[in-house]
Each structure stands twice: as structure tokens, then as C-alpha cells.
Amino acid sequence: MIKLYGYWRSLAAYRVRVALNLKGLTFTEEIVDLATDAQLAPAFRALNPQGAVPTVVIDGGPPLTQSLAIMELLDELHPEPPLLPTDPLRRAYARSLALLFAADHHPLITPRVTRYLRSNFAADDDKQTEWVRHWVHQSLQEAEARLVREHNGSSFCHSDLPGIADICLASQVLGAKAFNVDLTDTPHVNRISAACLANEAFSRAHPLRQPRV
Amino acid sequence: MIKLYGYWRSLAAYRVRVALNLKGLTFTEEIVDLATDAQLAPAFRALNPQGAVPTVVIDGGPPLTQSLAIMELLDELHPEPPLLPTDPLRRAYARSLALLFAADHHPLITPRVTRYLRSNFAADDDKQTEWVRHWVHQSLQEAEARLVREHNGSSFCHSDLPGIADICLASQVLGAKAFNVDLTDTPHVNRISAACLANEAFSRAHPLRQPRV
Predict the structure, then answer these.
(1) CB-based burial, A135-167: b 16+ in 10 Å, e otherwise
(2) Do A64 and B107 touch (CB under 8 A)?
(3) How far is B85 from chain A (nearest CA, A)?
(4) Cα–Cα 20 to 30 A to A87, which of A131, A162, B43, B191?
(5) pTM
(6) Is the separation of the CB atoms in B12 and B54 below 8 Å?
């Protein structure tokens, strides 16, 4: 039995939800209400000391954290359909594109960071939105520059099957849309994102299709 | 032939340097002078559109980016000594601890971010240092809380061989020391960091032992 601790608005929880759907795995989701800081409560921190979603528990085992580590584990435990290419160099490309989003950019726009901006730099809502837009836009620009060079005409980033890079790309584009980030100059990104959203594993995982409480 | 584009002060380049040393691989390093923004020059962006080190080229192949993706590739191409445990769950632990540092925290303290704080929030040197210290300290606190629970008494995070989690931990502790971050309440982190620094693969890769120009 797989239990996902998530939240509708969390882009990292979305990634894990998509991966579970792509693997055809049944799971239950427990809502950790980020709107009331439930992730910081001692009971949840006992599960994940980072106080963050997603956290996954498989068959009552130890809690697993970090969306990329969870997706790699799912791929190792359930190899079909694969979330990574088989060729080592292409695996490296997929992982590094996933990290462009999930490491270099998404952490910058999480609540703990915007909270710091508010408390230590007196950043009002407009300034916080400007911050979020700046980094999301930059991530999509950088990904576009990479895809111009390395995309081989397949449906997704690196193959005709969606994998970890596509999942991270799709999550970032959801963030971009939520914050009205300009998407006019990222055609590769937009095309791959549209291919993802048309996939049932992605559409079922969509933030707006999740219960909120 | 392996070529690393790095910079002495880059903690992410340090990670790749350590991994190459642990694998016993010979490489040359080309300095990308972050002090003069050489990483943003068109010539370097042609290699890595993100304008960031580390970037690695193996045998004249395509440029590889993102320290974690590069380390995973090195581990796939040269399995001995391993940088990841063999058990899938322990691999997930190692990856998620590596990501705690390399994804959730290190990106927050990179030059592109402190530059934004300076230009958009008028953050002076003190405010920038406070920002860096805050996130580095938080990362070590979170890692300590995880290690209290999951460390099994081995020399490093998850085994008696150093791997990707240890490399990321060691890089973050180097950052902590450079910014005088309080290390009094992270005994597991400190012990593992000391074990890393005593390892020749880590000491040869140390920022202060690299040429600066």
C-alpha cells in the first residue's frame, strides 16, 4: 500500500502523483494543509523533518522524501513504463533537465522562501509575485535553450514516453500559468507541456482536480 | 578524456571533483571565472545555456550539467567504487539527502540569487550574508534531524563508503564554514563531514586547493 502525503497546490507533490499514475500504482493521498502550515506541526515533522510534501510511505516502511528521489525509487521498483531513458548519456540529460526545474528553480518559489522575503525584506504580495515570476520565467527560458539543442523531435523531452524531465517541466509550467508567467517564447517547453497535459496520468494528477481539505 | 568546467569557490563543482577523484578518473579542469561572470558569456552559454558550473564534457561528447546528474552518470559508467547503496530504499535515502542539500538549499545561496536580492530588495552585504547563513544553517539542521533517525553508525551517511549524500553534505559544510554558520548542534553532520575531509578524494578537491585563475 502506497500513501502519499501531499497538497493540491504543491508542484512537487504533483510530480509524484503523476509518476504513480504513469506506473499504474494505486495510492491514497493524505492532505497536509500547507495553507495552515500543517507541514510544520511536530506530528508531520516526525515523519519528514524537513516539514515538506511530498512524503511517501510504502507498505508501512520508512518515510521517503524529495520528489526526484521518490520517482527514481518508483522506477527501480516498477521498471515499466520507464521514467528514464536506458542510454546513460540520455539518462544524464533527463536527470539534469529535471534538476534544472526541481533543484535550481522550484525551491526558490516555495512558501518558506517567500515567507522569508516577507519577514526579512518586507516584500509585499507584488514583490513576492515578481520574485516567483522572475525565477519561473528564467527556468523556462533555460529549459527552452536546452531543448532547442537537444530535442530530437520526439513527443516529450527525450523520448516518446513521458519521464522525470517531462514531469518536472509540466509541474513548472503549471506554476507559470498560476502566476501568469509569459510563455510566448518557449515553444518547445509549451509543446511538451501540452503533450503532458493531454496524458491521462497527468490530467488526473492536476492540482485543480485534487481535494483541498 | 574528461574535462570539467569549474571554479574554485563553486560548491557544485567541488562535488563533481570529489566524485571524479573517488572514481579514480583523470580529468582536466578549465576555470570559468565566476568572479568576472565568465559563466554568462555567450561562449560558455553555448556549452551550458544555464550559464553555470559544473559542466562536464566526456571524450568530446555533449556537455553534461547539474552535479547530481553528472555524479549519477559517473556511477553508471564506472560502477566501482559505488556512489550509491545497492538496496533501492537506501538509494532513495541517499538521493533524498543529497537533494536536501543540492536542491532545497544550495540553489538559494548562489550568485544569481544574491544578485537579485541586491538589485531588487536593496540587500547589502550584511543582509546577503544573513540570507546565506539562514538557509545553510537550516539545511544542516534538517539533515541532522534526518541523520539522528536514519544513521546506522557507519562512517558516512548511509554506509562505510562515501557517496552522493556525503559529497553534498561535505559541500554544504564547506559553505557553512566559509560563512561562519553555527555548527554546534549538528554532531552527525560534523562527524560525517570530518570523515569526508579526511578522505584524500575530498581533500584534493577542496576549494582552497584549486587554482583561482
Answers:
(1) bbbbbbbbbbbbbeebeeeeebbbbebbbbbbb
(2) no
(3) 12
(4) B43
(5) 0.98
(6) yes
